[in-house]
Design a protein that fits this description.
The longest helix has 16 residues. Helices cover 38% and strands 14% of the residues. By secondary structure, the chain is of the alpha/beta class. The model has no long low-confidence stretch (mean pLDDT 94). It is built from 7 helices and 6 strands; from the N terminus they run αβαβαβαβαβαβα.
């Protein structure tokens, strides 16, 4: 919700319930399979964790790439987010993504910023819903018990790697920090290493 061609207003979200509905509908499509894997990158990783921790979905395995359990927004913006969401719900807040912090691959950066479906800001109420979800996940991260592999770039300035620390400490989580990697660790020169690590983890868990 708030993304892609179907978004009435890009980067806008009235309530997190719309995200839950989208996840629930998507997960239903794989319900017939014996082993179910959820893969989430960035905000998608946060959405996956939120949905699992709140028991909305029950996959068997989880793959995470730089989940947004933290961010680089100024503290004042986050503090004011609730008030802004209530008073000016459609006020636009600039994205923290720029040409220097996205990827080490220039073609990936150019494609991102020339994509008409990419938005450069979110509404205050969207940001507030994201922050509330982020807080819920961080407070309840120990409820994650399924086998998980977590990738995070050491040079990620969009979602600082420190935000994955508590998640990385869980016994059921295989943590793979990626040296020299920015946020898009699957869309730059680190991709082969990430896929190699992922392949090994899938084999270890008898998924391939």
């Amino acid at each position: 919700p708030g993304h892609g061609e179907g978004a009435l207003v890009k980067g806008d979200l009235e309530t997190w319930g719309k995200v839950d509905k989208a996840v629930e509908d998507g997960f239903e499509k794989i319900s017939k399979y014996e082993k179910k894997i959820v893969f989430g990158h960035s905000v998608g990783g946060q959405v996956a964790l939120h949905s699992i921790i709140t028991e909305l979905i029950n996959p068997d395995f989880l793959i995470l790439s730089a989940p947004t359990l933290g961010d680089n927004y100024p503290k004042i913006i986050k503090t004011l987010s609730k008030s802004l969401a209530n008073i000016f719900p459609k006020l636009r807040i600039p994205s923290s993504v720029n040409k220097k912090n996205l990827s080490t691959d220039e073609s990936v950066v150019n494609n991102y910023f020339s994509d008409p479906l990419v938005f450069r800001s979110v509404t205050a109420r969207y940001g507030n819903e994201l922050l509330k979800s982020q807080e819920l996940v961080n407070k309840n991260i120990k409820k994650l018990t399924l086998q998980t592999i977590l990738f995070h770039g050491e040079e990620d300035k969009i979602v600082p790697i420190e935000s994955s620390l508590e998640l990385s400490k869980l016994q059921n989580v295989k943590y793979v920090p990626i040296h020299g990697s920015k946020h898009e660790l699957l869309n730059q020169d680190t991709r082969p290493f990430v896929l190699s690590e992922l392949h090994s983890w899938l084999k270890q868990n008898k998924l391939i």
